[in-house]
Design goal:
The chain has about 575 residues and is α+β, with helices and mostly antiparallel strands. The protein has two domains: about 230 residues, Sandwich (Jelly Rolls); about 300 residues, Jelly Rolls, CATH 2.60.120. About 25% of the residues lie in helices and about 35% in strands. The chain has ten helices and 34 strands. The protein has a 17-stranded mixed beta sheet that branches. It has a 17-stranded mixed beta sheet that branches. Helix 5 crosses helix 10. The longest helix is centred in the last third of the chain and has 38 residues. The radius of gyration is 27 Å and the shape is globular.
């Protein structure tokens, strides 16, 4: 068996290198800077060619014939020029083989990766998506191939000695594996296959049927936030990674967010005030943070967008008074998190965050003397208006853009309002069944349209302090750019605008890094809370939730205040 294994390895290596031999005439520069180290957790080393191994650092660039090794607690993420991403797990070793990325001719592009031992998650870039014949991946004595165009996202684990034991798990696309014990012709998304000495590899099985140790290893790689699998200029991307890494310690320390700072002002017009629990009142501005016990007053013409730590978003219209009665967010224990809002008067749009998604009972919302309950467990987006000059004469309306709610009014319950529906309530009348928004009072329709037209941040978790700083920095950069644009000949204003843009970019990278740390913690917490599978693992993965659903961080993120990209928000168009 050992002799066969050695011959198998030789044939694999010979085939891969002969295929790549045609590129041997390429200049040394063509192979330089294949990629860079995007992130490191724990101990990891880098060895270039025959040079002595050294500790790896975020931002290190690498080229052909570079070996990475991780320690017992180490992990790292590598990003390549074509967008290919490799995550190396604990106690693992990987060799970067020949790599050539020709953006103008992907058929001439090649990538060779050898997992010497341990565990690796592999996400294809442009080469793997368009020229799968140019991708060569070995794991121990086995060779993996991407079967179809469009790329793939898979995890492979291998222990080569004394006789190879391995397994592959696919999240996206499909692959085949040529093992020392026979071929595995196809592994689809959501499936896994093991291989071991003395046995022909079995047919693919669902991930949930994998042994606990396999599920735990995959979960450890999937919970790491990978960068987007889009092409980059390696040198500049590496510099950006260094900037992001400089804020990682702060981000990770802030995962347990300061309970006194539960949210921040993402956008605001003039005339909005915030009264803290201490009684101190300040004027709201972009980036102003607030704690539980705060009260917001928008005045006659004010509007404000509030972003909470768990991603919850609240928009207040003019003549509105809102109390943040209670708020606590623990990304490690969502079941212990809670949010209580009291709309004393006026109009509020509410977009749910992580607390509602994982702990619906933890969200409490009152509007005047009425109570609003969110019925669905998915995202919710609704608007409620209440005129509560007196408890017995309350007038209100609620409309739903996404999800469904119920309202307990002083005049009777409204059992359900679904997406696209609205229901008013007023003295002396039992609330009518839900109807389309077009049947609601014209003034309410106008209020809903005004709040729906406002650009909102994503309803994803953030670290309040860093997200608030990013919001303020972006707002300052916008003002500086406007001044510079109005005075193109003023060198001082141009310099101020450039400096402000750089500060905003740095703050944005920090906010993005911090929000990813929180999101990864939430994901890991949710994963750990899943029920055990037949294999006995309480860490069971969900085959229908591939890691591509995890937050990703483009190298040059166009992130708006709040650490989220303002391209989409839950519910109605925003």
């Amino acid at each position: 068996m050992i002799a066969i294994t050695k011959m198998h390895r030789l044939l694999i290596s010979f085939g891969a290198w002969m295929t790549l031999f045609a590129c041997a005439a390429c200049s040394t520069a063509a192979w330089a800077q294949a990629g860079y180290v995007h992130e490191i957790i724990g101990e990891a080393s880098i060895q270039r060619g025959i040079a002595k191994a050294a500790p790896a650092k975020v931002g290190d660039t690498f080229e052909t014939d570079t070996v990475f090794r991780t320690g017992a607690e180490g992990k790292l993420i590598l990003k390549y020029g074509d967008g290919q991403v490799v995550t190396l797990g604990v106690d693992s070793a990987l060799r970067v083989g020949q790599y050539r990325y020709v953006a103008g001719n992907l058929k001439q592009s090649t990538s060779s990766t050898e997992l010497m031992r341990g565990e690796m998650r592999f996400v294809t870039g442009l080469i793997g998506a368009t020229n799968r014949e140019g991708i060569f991946i070995t794991a121990g004595n086995s060779m993996l191939s991407i079967r179809n165009p469009g790329g793939a996202d898979f995890t492979v684990m291998v222990k080569p000695d004394p006789e190879e034991v391995g397994a592959a798990v696919v999240a996206r696309g499909d692959i085949s594996v040529r093992t020392p014990y026979g071929p595995i012709y196809k592994i689809d998304a959501g499936q896994y296959v093991p291989w071991q000495p003395g046995r022909t590899p079995p047919p693919p099985l669902p991930i949930a049927a994998a042994p606990a140790v396999i599920q735990a290893a995959v979960a450890g790689l999937w919970t790491m936030v990978v960068p987007a699998s889009s092409p980059v200029v390696v040198a500049s991307a590496a510099r950006m990674a260094v900037v992001a890494a400089a804020t990682t310690s702060m981000a990770q320390a802030a995962v347990s967010t300061d309970p006194k700072q539960v949210g921040f002002v993402d956008a605001v017009s003039s005339g909005v005030s915030i009264r803290a629990a201490t009684g101190k009142t300040v004027t709201a501005s972009i980036g102003t943070t607030f704690g539980a016990g705060s009260t917001f007053n928008t005045g006659a013409d004010g509007q404000v967008v509030l972003k909470f730590a768990d991603g919850q978003v609240v928009v207040l219209g003019p003549n509105s008074l809102l109390g943040v009665d209670q708020y606590q967010f623990d990304p490690r224990d969502i079941k212990a998190s809670k949010s209580a809002l009291d709309l004393v008067d006026g109009t509020m749009r509410f977009v749910s965050g992580v607390i509602h998604t994982d702990n619906r009972e933890g969200v409490s919302i009152s509007a005047g003397a009425s109570l609003v309950d969110i019925l669905n467990r998915g995202p919710a987006d609704f608007t409620v208006t209440v005129n509560a000059k007196s408890k017995d004469q309350e007038v209100g309306v609620a409309a739903v853009a996404a999800g469904e709610i119920s309202v307990h009014t002083p005049y009777g319950p409204i059992s359900k309002i679904e997406s696209g529906q609205a229901v008013p309530w007023q003295p002396g009348r039992t609330p009518q069944p839900a109807a389309t928004l077009a049947t609601a009072p014209a003034s309410f329709q106008a209020a809903v349209a005004t709040l729906a037209a406002m650009t909102l941040p994503e309803n994803t978790p953030v670290v309040v302090q860093s997200a608030a700083l990013a919001a303020a920095a972006v707002a300052a950069a916008d003002r500086a750019q406007a001044a510079a644009g109005a005075n193109p000949g003023n060198a001082r204003l141009q310099a101020i605008a450039q400096a402000a843009a750089e500060q905003a970019n740095t703050a944005t990278v920090a906010a993005t890094t911090a929000s990813q740390a929180v999101a990864a913690t939430v994901f890991a917490s949710t994963l750990a809370s899943l029920p055990a599978t037949a294999a006995g693992a309480a860490q069971a993965l969900v085959p229908t939730a591939p890691p591509l659903a995890l937050p990703v961080s483009p190298i040059a993120p166009a992130v708006t205040p709040g650490g989220g990209v303002r391209t989409a928000c839950t519910g109605s168009p925003c």
